[in-house]
Amino acid sequence: MVATAKTTRRTARREQRRQQLIDATMKCIARKGMGNTTLGDVAGEAGLSQGIVNLHFKSKDNLLAETLRYLADEYKSHFSKAYEKSGPGPADKLLALVELDLRPSICDRRKVAVWFAFWGEVQSRPTYRKICDERDQYYDDTIERLAAEIIAEGDYQHITAESVAIVLNSMTNGLWLSFLISPRTFDRQKARDALLGYLSSVFPKHFS
User: Fold this and answer.
1) Do 165 and 143 meet the contact criterion of CB atoms below 8 Å apart?
2) One domain, residues 2 and 22
3) Cα Rg of the chain, angstroms
4) DSSP of 157-206, one letter per residue?
5) N or C of the chain: less Cβ packing under 10 Å?
6) 136 phi, psi to nearest 5 deg
7) Containing structural domain, residue 28
């Protein structure tokens, strides 16, 4: 029992250190950019030695990949919770997911900066592409399914679920970019109104 308790504590400390380093990595990328961030920068930001960084991640590439994976997993967790806690109808769930992307926990300048930094590297980094593609596919599949249910319920013509998912994804990315560039003037309510305006235009029976 004592050995198990010690093992549990060691595991908890290891996970705490890893999270500490991932958080430090996001801060460094948001401040300096991905290319200019070094393991020394991350260690300094975390208040740890560079040896600890090497112990946990072995290399900068591994650290960056794990940081992106953490961001993707965190987003998926928030996405799933928003879906489950929303109302029962497809319109309720779609609205909850759209609003999620503007919450401070998601639309956070540091996180958005890191997302864009990784998106800029996906063409040359297959690992980043795979992680981002999995996240995007999960998003698109859910949004498309909800949109298809709304289309069937309202007998909407001349609109496809795929096009709705594409537009919402594009609008969200554009709003995130606006937030990243001009955080002081970004208005979350106006951003929400813009997204709701689009939903109202294609699904007037469900959104107003």
Assistant:
1) yes
2) yes
3) 20
4) -S--HHHHHHHHHHHHHHHHHHHHH-TTT--HHHHHHHHHHHHHHH-TTT
5) N
6) -65, -40
7) 1-58
Whether residue 119 is found in the same domain as residue 179: yes
- Could you give the angle at the alpha carbon of 24 between the alpha carbons of 44 and 105, nearest 5°? 155
Chain length of the chain: 208
Determine the number of helices (DSSP H) and then strands (DSSP E) in the chain: 9, 0
Tokens of 111: 């996180």
Whether residues 140 and 92 fall in one domain:
yes
Residue 143 tokens read as 């949004």
Residues of the chain with pLDDT under 70: 1-12
pLDDT tens, residue by residue, 163-199: 999 999 999 999 999 999 999 999 999 999 999 999 9
Q: Are 205 and 150 in contact (CB under 8 A)?
A: no
